Amino acid sequence: MNGTYHRFFHTASLGSARVIVLDSECPSAEQSEFLERELQSEAFQSARFRIVAVHIPPYIEFWNPYTWSERGEKHWGEHIRLEYDALFRRHNVDLVISGHQHNYQRGTVRRNLQSVDPSDPITYAIVGGAGGELDHERVDNWYMYNVTYLGHHFVSLEVDDRQLRWLAKNKAGTIIDQFDIVR
Fold it and tell me: CA-to-CA distance for 113 and 77, rounded, in angstroms?
């Protein structure tokens, strides 16, 4: 701790899932080394489900246009996209959960960008609409999200030995998105 922030990155197991939590606000060599070590670890690689949680998503599409372009906020998560995204793909991460953007998006892409086989995807989910002002203005388009919801929402994640179930609901409790990963 240096008086202005506390770096937090951690790994935990949740049943058959292994979860890595990163600090996207303060990139560091220490965190990059931690991430590489954890992604390569026997515990992570042998987990049935491999999850990474990070505040700033690698692919942001909605934000305040002025602060995005004029104040440089479009650069906030670049290191997640430029450095960590390739590691997520190479080390078979199943799900990357982030926030920051104040709405909901989910997209699934191939782990291997050169492959035409869509059977081994990595899922990126932005869960940022639990309260406060929502982001409605598109500032970029990565052409990877196939679900977008611009209202308040919450998500539940259930993990058992063979299945990861994701349910996103609006504030009335109606399902707005869901998916399963089955092993």
Answer: 20
Residue 170 placed within a domain: no
Cβ–Cβ under 8 Å, residues 131 and 116? no
Number of domains in the chain: 1
Q: Could you list the residue range(s) of the whole structural domain that residue 60 is in? A: 10-153
**Amino acid symbol at 83:** E
Amino acid at 43: A
Report the sign of the C-alpha dihedral through residues 132, 137, 139, 143, in that order. positive
Residue 163 inside a domain? The answer is no
Q: For the sheet containing 17-21, what is the strand order?
A: 10-14, 17-21, 49-53, 95-98, 121-127, 104-110, 145-149
- Residue at 17 is within a domain: yes
Q: What is the DSSP string of 90-142?
A: HTT--EEEE-SSSSEEEEEEESSTT---TTSEEEEEEE--SSSPPP--B----
Could you tell me which of 123, 141, 160 has the C-alpha nearest to residue 48? 160
Of 6-15, 70-79, 161-170, 173-182, the poorest mean pLDDT is in 6-15
Convert the pLDDT of each residue in 106-163 to its tens digit: 998 877 766 656 567 899 999 999 878 999 999 999 999 999 999 999 999 999 889 9
Domain with residue 41: its CATH number is 3.60.21.10
In a domain, 96, yes or no: yes
